[in-house]
Amino acid sequence: MGLLLTPLLSFTNEAAELNDPKSTKQTSNVKIIDIEIRAKVELFNLRNENLREGNNKKNELELEPLLRLNAWVMKDSPLYGRTELEWKRLTTRKSGEQSEKQTKLELNQAYIGMTNEIIPYTHLKLGRWLYRDEREWLFDENLDGVYVQSQMRDWFIDAAAGRINYWQKDLMDSTTRNTETENIGSIMLRRTLEDKWQIGTYAVAQHNTDNNDRQLNVGLRSHNPARKGLQHWLELGMSKDRESGNGYAVDIGGTYLFDHGDIKPRVTLGYAFGSKDYRQTGLHDNQATFGGATKFKIYGETLDPDLTNIHIVSTGLGINVTRNATLDVIYHAYSQASSGDISGNNVALKSQYDRQNTRYLGSGVDVVFGWEPTDNTKVEAIAGMFAPSKRFVSADKTNSPRSDNAYSVGMEFEMTF
Prior knowledge:
mainly beta; 18-stranded antiparallel barrel
């Protein structure tokens, strides 16, 4: 659940322009400082993390209120600045453990920006900035460094170079400055075909100079977020690193939006595969929508796997409950590409037993709801379930410890003023 309060404070500079003795005095307002304040509370509950039946289940609850301050200097000018500070109070409760509380004051963004009025066809950011790509398949991270986007007609080039937490992240904790020298560089080439349909290619390189680890991700992609008819996505990726070697992945699917009255039903079908040696960037979050108003974990809210050594088939149905509310139900079927420990998939669940006698992992269901009753309020709720396969038991005997379903619930409520 989240509460969002957004008062806006602006300071302006008046400039008078006199063209000739007969002209009238003209005044233009230039915003010098814009300040936006948000208050938010997030709630997430994961139940039966260890997939156990009976009374030995492990549950986890996270409650996090936060205040976020966004400040822009000369926001609409060719040269501008932005700072984003976030105060948060995280409370974590785990089964059999005492509650843990953490207070943080994080510097999320702090950069200077230059528009194409200074450098033709180019937008540049220097400092700490948030980097996200389509479906957050490669990036959802704050980087310290430089970001450059150039546009020439229908072609876009995005280039980024930086590090994570080169400067201290939590201003109340000096240990949040990353002392490991991990350099990250990426380049993306995109072309707009029609409307918002874009095709492109990318390369993301990471190098940790402390242990000489290197990882390279390259790929081809196509995204078309159409508002009616067929919207699709396609990701073809390859990865290479010193430990795992070469791997590859594919994520393809589409959502068809029917233009039928106010409910505007939609149907989604998707398939994702990652080989045993494929590694995502580690800077990703795998969040998007299937035509609804609320983002969710595209590979399942409860299991939440990386795209490594796995096959995922997803189907979804969605409708507009009202003109301001959307509802989606998504089903996922999971199986491994090669039999192995499930922890290699970097999943959110940690089963005590895993016999690895089948590659089928289980199935999941997500229910995603988003509602904007007024222009300044928003409600989001996501409920997920993962049903494990029979490999997550200690033995075939009827009296052996059995596995059971895991569940997750996340909620947000936002209000703006």
